[in-house]
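Researcher: We plan to redesign the surface later, but first we want a full-length starting point. Tokens attached.
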């Protein structure tokens, strides 16, 4: 692969190191050849090469009819959305912020590796800059994910902000221009749990959404398949309140990059229903409503005085309401497979069945390899940072009927999906 990094490093400096690192990782984890195997099993030749940014009207009109014929090898989803989602593998493997199990999250290196390990879709979180650009960061507070604290010129911008009702202290993207953010470098957010990822601290710049979209299009051509993005609007009510609304900016970027519309290779997600409703009026992309813990409330509900909690939204009437503006839900795994106080799995809920009855897909979050993130049933040993039986946990979720999930380690999910398909007698 000869891709020029977006961080300004020369190809001679960056490419050989990145390539050798990837080859070592694939050998060390026994995943050599997994990319090709995953694409053969999960994508095959059912994807277009992604040579055009903007699909024509005829392609959009024929999407529903072509969906079944275009679906890659795999199980058949129980819900037909009438969108480009119907062309994607089922169940779906979503590279959560790229591959943050192996690289600092939301960086070019993380996204690149997620695709090499077989992810069908890569997920960026979006926050705005002071001058209105959308950048790819997990939060607008960049204290933990960049080297901003090492930049003396920005020392005076450390401040405390109240975001979604919570006071936070650090440095915030809305106080920086894009040019200023480009002087920073990303670092590992969880260095105690993922110490090996600190090897890459300082290597990559903060990406803009447009840069990631350009990368996905070019990488799709190299892979011979469509590379989809799954952007999330972060804290949309907060940003609207300070004059930096996300939805209009995202819709504009989707149009500029050829990602708008049913065949636009972008799935939109948010924890705030009003954000998805605004997006629905701007672009015709598939939409997924994210759901936190059962007792939590979307922050736009808090602002509007809506007393409903997530526990209300996962009831049949709540799911029918979500289906009026979204094509699926992104619940926590505990809303599907709850655990007790000791972390042991309890009988699954009826959410998968109820969501499918409401014509909603389910993309729960987040499947990770480390014991600390696994139900006790799948932990191995006592070290919280050691790997447990994440493949078994992923397969369990597939067997419960989820339509895909967000994962920090795409290769684990790909292997679990191959096992799941084999058990179903699917090639």
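Model: Full-length starting sequence:
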């Amino acid at each position: 692969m000869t891709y020029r990094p977006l961080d300004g490093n020369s190809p001679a400096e960056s490419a050989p190191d990145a390539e050798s690192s990837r080859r070592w990782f694939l050998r060390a984890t026994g995943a050599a050849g997994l990319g090709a195997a995953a694409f053969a099993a999960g994508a095959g030749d059912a994807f277009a090469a992604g040579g055009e940014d903007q699909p024509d009207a005829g392609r959009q009109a024929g999407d529903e009819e072509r969906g079944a014929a275009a679906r890659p090898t795999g199980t058949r989803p129980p819900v037909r959305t009438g969108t480009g989602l119907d062309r994607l593998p089922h169940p779906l493997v979503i590279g959560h912020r790229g591959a943050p199990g192996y690289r600092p999250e939301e960086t070019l290196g993380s996204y690149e590796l997620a695709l090499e390990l077989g992810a069908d879709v890569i997920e960026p979180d979006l926050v705005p800059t002071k001058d209105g650009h959308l950048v790819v960061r997990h939060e607008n507070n960049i204290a933990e994910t960049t080297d901003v604290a090492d930049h003396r010129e920005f020392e005076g911008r450390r401040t405390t902000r109240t975001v979604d009702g919570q006071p936070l202290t650090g440095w915030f993207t809305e106080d920086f221009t894009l040019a200023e953010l480009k002087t920073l470098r990303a670092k590992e957010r969880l260095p105690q749990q993922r110490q090996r990822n600190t090897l890459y601290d300082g290597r990559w710049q903060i990406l803009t959404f447009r840069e990631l979209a350009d990368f996905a299009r070019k990488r799709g051509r190299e892979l011979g398949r469509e590379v989809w993005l799954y952007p999330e609007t972060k804290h949309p009510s907060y940003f609207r309140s300070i004059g930096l609304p996300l939805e209009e900016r995202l819709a504009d970027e989707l149009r500029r990059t050829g990602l708008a519309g049913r065949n636009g290779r972008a799935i939109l997600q948010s924890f705030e229903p009003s954000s998805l409703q605004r997006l629905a009026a701007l672009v015709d992309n598939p939409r997924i409503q994210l759901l936190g813990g059962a007792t939590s409330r979307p922050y736009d509900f808090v602002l509007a005085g809506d007393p409903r909690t997530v526990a209300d939204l996962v009831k049949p009437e709540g799911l029918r309401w979500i289906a009026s503006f979204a094509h699926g839900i992104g619940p926590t795994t505990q809303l599907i497979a709850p655990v007790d106080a000791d972390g042991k799995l309890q009988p699954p809920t009826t959410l998968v069945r109820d969501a499918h009855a409401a014509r909603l897909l389910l993309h729960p979050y987040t499947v990770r390899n480390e014991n600390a993130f696994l139900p006790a049933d799948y932990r191995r040993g006592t070290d919280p940072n050691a790997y447990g039986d994440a493949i078994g946990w992923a397969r369990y979720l597939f067997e419960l009927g989820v339509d895909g999930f967000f994962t920090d380690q795409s290769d684990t999910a790909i292997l679990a999906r191959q096992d799941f398909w084999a058990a179903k007698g699917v090639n």
